[in-house]
Amino acid sequence: MTLPHALTPILEPQSVAVIGASSDPEKRGHQVLAALRASGFPGTIYPVNPKGGEILDFTVFRSLTELPEAPDLAYVALPAALVPNVVRECGQYGTKGAIVPAVGFRESGKEGAELEACLLSAAQETGVRVIGPNTSGLLNTHARLHMVGGEPLPPGGLAILAQSGNIALDLMTAASTRPIGVSIYVGPGNETDIGFHEYLDFLGSHEPTRAIVMYLEGVADGEALFEMASRVTRYKPVVVLKGGISGAGERTARSHTGAVTGSHKVFSALAREAQMIEVVRADELLAVAETLATQPPVRPRSDDTDGGVVVLSDGGGHATLSADHLSKAGVPLAHLSSTTQEALRQRLGPAANVNNPIDAAGAADQAPTVLGDVLQILASDRGCHAILITGLFGGYAIRFAEELATEECEAADQIVEAVRKEAVPIVVHSLYAARLPPPLLRLLEREIPVYGSLETAIRCLTSLCVRGATPESLIGISEGQPNANRKARYGSEDVNWRKRSSQGSWLSELETRELLTPFGVPMVPSTFCHERKDVAAAVGKGPHVLKLVSRHLPHKTEAGAVRLGIEGSGQADVELKLAVDSASTYLAERGLPLDFDGFLVSPMQPKPLAELLIGAQRDPQFGPILTLGMGGVEVELFDDVAIRGLPIEEDQVVRMCHELKFSPLLFGYRGRASVDINSIAKIGVAVGACLLTHSNILELELNPVFAYVDRVVAVDATAYVGSIV
Amino acid sequence: MTLPHALTPILEPQSVAVIGASSDPEKRGHQVLAALRASGFPGTIYPVNPKGGEILDFTVFRSLTELPEAPDLAYVALPAALVPNVVRECGQYGTKGAIVPAVGFRESGKEGAELEACLLSAAQETGVRVIGPNTSGLLNTHARLHMVGGEPLPPGGLAILAQSGNIALDLMTAASTRPIGVSIYVGPGNETDIGFHEYLDFLGSHEPTRAIVMYLEGVADGEALFEMASRVTRYKPVVVLKGGISGAGERTARSHTGAVTGSHKVFSALAREAQMIEVVRADELLAVAETLATQPPVRPRSDDTDGGVVVLSDGGGHATLSADHLSKAGVPLAHLSSTTQEALRQRLGPAANVNNPIDAAGAADQAPTVLGDVLQILASDRGCHAILITGLFGGYAIRFAEELATEECEAADQIVEAVRKEAVPIVVHSLYAARLPPPLLRLLEREIPVYGSLETAIRCLTSLCVRGATPESLIGISEGQPNANRKARYGSEDVNWRKRSSQGSWLSELETRELLTPFGVPMVPSTFCHERKDVAAAVGKGPHVLKLVSRHLPHKTEAGAVRLGIEGSGQADVELKLAVDSASTYLAERGLPLDFDGFLVSPMQPKPLAELLIGAQRDPQFGPILTLGMGGVEVELFDDVAIRGLPIEEDQVVRMCHELKFSPLLFGYRGRASVDINSIAKIGVAVGACLLTHSNILELELNPVFAYVDRVVAVDATAYVGSIV
Q1: Is B316 in contact with A164 (Cβ distance < 8 A)?
Q2: Which of A226, A270, B140, B276 could hold B145 in an S-S bridge, CB 3.0 to 4.6 Å?
Q3: Cα B614 to Cα B594: distance, rounded to the nearest angstrom
Q4: Neighbouring C-beta atoms of residue B508, cutoff 10 Å
């Protein structure tokens, strides 16, 4: 027997109090009572209002203490200012959870933030767990607990976590028309107490929930979210849409949820690492979740390399567009065996196109059960990893002849039987989906997803492919102890710039080099000269580079503080003067102190095969990450980076190299040799370890890193120390 | 009075013959008669079948010659093999057009292609214009002429040109549920005779047609299409979806329409030049066309730079996602004036967010007419260039209280009035769109587009922005004579490699240099040495480059035939031998002749600020184009090119430079200087002119072109001569 989850009494309560119950139908304190009644909540309902009396035939209690028992959950339908005290009372009385719909907390400014701090104290001191504030409520169809507005919903399988009541309503409205239905909806709101990850944890073990849909703008604890997600996604699909990804969007998000919205790239990379499925369109969220909940993931059924998706159409255009879209998504079409092709030809006639995409037009539209036979043939081909039916199916009786209706329904049954027998995933696009003719209803009732948009159907199919893919990496989290590892490896050994880091400061290249050396990061050899007079002697044979050392110059090149191609001591003197003059002007213009620690002199390196950037940073929302990309001064133009959570292993860094658009430069291209990937992997791990070891390093960047056939060396390095707000 | 269009008797016939009329309801020759009857075609209908008799109460004629008149249009419901002769008979009898639905022509292989050639001869010799073959038919709702299957449709405003019957059916099925409706549908099929551009020409002057929707896979005459489109789009929106853009898709397209599918990038660039709106999702095609047909384009209403789209939501999530999507599409949000904000605050209450996106939640859901007032306030702000309403509107009565129904309908009327008065474009997203509640029906009936998908609504809005944008370029086509210019400037002066070009051949660098010189393309100075013994003497002071000259070595670097950094005659001899040996091996491995013309010796150029590729080519489908992008050996990795049709002007080349992702490298970046853009523009024009002058140059490429602050010089050049198949 498994222990009940800590959130069980709150999300599946036996008794509920509505504090601030009202007889005014326009007030929340009335609507929630009405909704609870309408949904047939089987537990006890306690309306609370100092006025007493009756509302909707319920006897109203004048205060919490009048209740015959402590209710499991309290719905606090009161304005923000009153909430902290009421929550404290709830806790003192033994109530386990409180739902706070009120706005006027953190999202509304400084005063609200203070009020929210009071609410949190009240919760923590009395042990009450709080949903919200700024939540649109809670719905548990299996517990018949309805505490949001709108129509009651039957029990279903999709759980919804959404930071927007409207998006939630959107999803619930749409889900209510599909057989899958909704299991639980929670609006985490400001996440003052209960965070996304805790709801996710609960839903992971919530039996009726078959897939989890999330809409989030900001998240209070991004690291916890991804760690939890990487556990839950092992056995349940999690689909996520992230709002507030643009500058403009970010502004909107801030004014609405009071959460800081993190960089979208980081979010996407970490979501993928945690095996979540990210969608970027609201109109795909429900469909993708429904498909993932009802269809098996797309996985190879044999060792051959010819497997893939089979597209079955009844006309050219949809077949062409399906092939286009699948190709763009990187999903291969299956090459069907000659046996399969021969069987198809026998069934569809000699003129039919039996190469994938298969066109059944002319055969199926006169005798729909042909499709049933075709599906059986396809499903038994081991190269058929998944099936997309696209076109008119479901509407043959509408389009061609009413007499086809019965046979079309039979075909639907045969389709279901064929894919069930072989456990082949299937998605159906029909241009008659909106009309829901009987054959499509049959498919839907048997949990075969049907969509009116070809693009939505294809997105669902590709999400099944992603779900079926071998986990590319689980960021070093070992089985069984998913939570422990990552946090444990966070270091606490501060670097010795405490004073500076309290306000935030760049480190000079020299300081950064000292930081990196113990981790084995290879840097271009250099001589440090404290005095100007020592520079000339440090310039040896061949061309050299001279750099000013100052923590005020993180962008040395821009400041003219890097001089290249210095040969001999005469030139060294000239360049030294130029560097100092240029940097002085640069610093003076910016009101920074003319404060140099000295000079670094290094031999020029030969032209590398590739220049990289390798950096690590602490994302304020999502924790420590490693970034690897094409480097040099044009790094922003390339916009070609891979991102992973830290800590990281060498093989994961190698995979990051493969992810880059410019990866051919690293792995050989047009007769060019491959660079020393192993060394890149070692440096990636070392940079990550360095960041994790020193908890006050916020950013650490090697740029450029020169990669050669047999070695890799960092040419420059910088770091920023501070404390995360 | 305007003259009737040449296609008028065919697309708006007074009389129609159905040749191959049949009493079998499963045959086309029956279905078309039934469809014509059902649609109430007011002209004369002549069924023709040698058997005579009666079908559907029509008297059947035994042959064309028995008819009392030559019908305007003949629907030839006969197998492919019979079609050419029947079409010839039609022409001899005086019939003006023929529709050929039969397959078995070009798309089916060599024999079919021969049959199609016979069909074309029959048409051209007798003057019959042919729709198809391989067409799904013709529908003209205004002429009540229905010659495709399915339900009759009422007259409407969208014309559909589609190379797939299924996509057409998809569009017609969807359009039939919208007030805009369908005007004409034609399936151009194989375009043997009448091509896309001719239909487009007809539709351009077809009064009831308000927007044109095209689905195409291949197109017979891409140049004619784009030239016609650039005329028609001046006064009617044209929306296009291109199928067959992927390798896999291309294969499917080939087997279905027999047309060669061109490169998608070229198509997109030229479609944009012609001011067509390209969509990439089938589920957006109808919506975008409907919006463009019913809403004015988005244009600035004032000189201020703060204008943009206003988003009006009733909840956070949709507002955030709208801002995200608009930002991604590069569409600015309007900054509302303080007067407007104050007016909004008065109407929505002090707590409302009156910064764009505006959140009316809390006000509108209790009193929907608030939305009407808000719309009036917004529409009168000159910075409001367009409005997106997103969220629950239309469903307030469903979601909140039934009593709101009347007021919500009033609000709909007020919305219509407000945007009409100020001619502000508007698109509405409602999560209740699928249910079509009365307020949304009111909007739709007054031609305000409403969509259930937020992303579709936003795509519609961004297409209005594109439609309203100043034509970036009209490829030098002067007003009034759109057709003439481009063709006229195609040269016919062949370069003197006729013999080689009949089979296709590369030109050596030396040959290409000779070709380019008269057009003023600056190339790195070089000395040509016919004999090996002259090479050493040609190497002057400083480092030089040695290149083998051979038309068999278009990729010299790969063959080891380019030697860099040669200093002095001793090194020259060594490198010369290396080059010859390496190239000899390379040629021998490929079975190519060891055939060198000699050697080019040039001084090494300093490192440029940027390396470019500037090329021109004749696209087999879309005609001559100029390509400009980042150059060097990594050009495929950069995947950063701009494309335009030829001929071209200098300012257009400058705009191409701006289009590149790497444009900061050209226009100055992080303190780096800008390169000599004027010279790049001149070279672009020159390369284009060179291609147009010599009609047998298929490709011409300068790569790399070195760009400096004060000059631009081509380092290498190659060309391919041949004849377009």
Answers
A1: yes
A2: B140
A3: 29
A4: 26
The tokens describing B576, both together, are: 């010369």
DSSP B80: G
Within an 8 Å CB–CB cutoff, is residue B606 touching chain A? no
How far B504 CA sits from the closest chain A CA (Å)? Answer: 25
Is B355 within 8 Å of A255 when comparing Cβ atoms?
yes
What element of type H or E holds B249?
Answer: helix B247-257
- Specify the amino acid at residue A660: L
Domains of chain B, start order = 1-134 (3.40.50.720), 153-292 (3.40.50.261), 295-468 (3.40.50.261), 525-603 (3.30.1490.20), 610-721 (3.30.470.20)
> What mean pLDDT, rounded, does chain B reach?
87
Q: Which helix (H) or strand (E) holds B93?
A: helix B83-93
CB count in 10 Å sphere of residue A339: 11
- Helices (DSSP H) in A26-94: which residue ranges? 28-39, 83-93
Q: Closest by alpha carbon to A696, among A547, A499, A494?
A: A494
Query: Is the Cβ–Cβ distance between A681 and A522 less than 8 Å?
Result: no
Phi/psi region, residue B699 (left: phi>0; alpha: psi -120 to 50; beta: rest), is beta
- What's residue A356's pLDDT? 93
State residue B72's pLDDT score.
Answer: 96
Determine contact, residues B378/B357, Cβ cutoff 8 Å: no
DSSP single-letter state for residue B496: S
pLDDT at residue B401 in the model: 82
Lowest-confidence pick of A144-148, B499-503, B505-509, B705-709: B499-503
Express each pLDDT in A111-130 by its tens digit.
Answer: 999 999 999 999 999 999 99
pLDDT band for position A712 (50/70/90)? very high
Would you state the structure tokens that stand for residue A477, as one six-digit string?
């989290």
- What pLDDT digit, counting tens, does each position of A12-31 carry? 999 999 999 999 988 899 99
Query: Shortest CB distance from A246 goes to which of B327, B392, B634?
Result: B327
Q: How far apart are CA B458 and CA B326, in angstroms?
A: 7
Cβ-Cβ contacts under 8 Å for B214 (sequence gap 6 or more) = B160, B161, B162, B196, B200, B238, B239, B240, B241
CA distance B349 to B351: 6
Tokens 């405003």 sit on residue: B157
CA-closest candidate to residue B597, choices B574, B573, B580, B575: B580
| DSSP class per residue in A391-442 | ESTT-HHHHT-GGGHHHHHHHHHHHHHHHHHHT--EEEEETTGGG--HHHHH
pLDDT higher than 90, residue B500: no
CA distance B478 to A628: 50
For residue B230 the two structure tokens come to: 């650039």
- pLDDT at residue A502, rounded to an integer: 60
Q: What is the pLDDT of residue B633?
A: 64
Amino acid at B452: G
Contacts of B343 (CB under 8 A, 6+ apart): B377
- The amino acid at residue A638 is F
Whole-angstrom distance, CA of residue A473 vs CA of residue A471 = 5
| Shortest CA gap A69–chain B (Å) | 33
d(CA A195, CA A219): 8
Q: At what angle do helices B677-693 and B509-516 cross, to 10 degrees?
A: 100
- What is the spatial distance between Cα A699 and Cα A519, in angstroms, rounded to a whole number? 16
Region of poorest pLDDT, from A203-217, A284-298, B563-577, B671-685: B563-577
Give the DSSP H or E segment for A576.
helix A568-589
pLDDT score recorded for residue B638: 73
CB B353 within 8 A of CB B359: yes
Cα–Cα distance, B201 to B645 (Å, whole number) = 20
CA atoms within 13 A on the CB side of B559: 25
Question: A321, A322, A635: best mutation site toward chain B, by most B Cβ within 10 Å?
Answer: A321
The strand pairing partners of A641, in sequence order, are A629
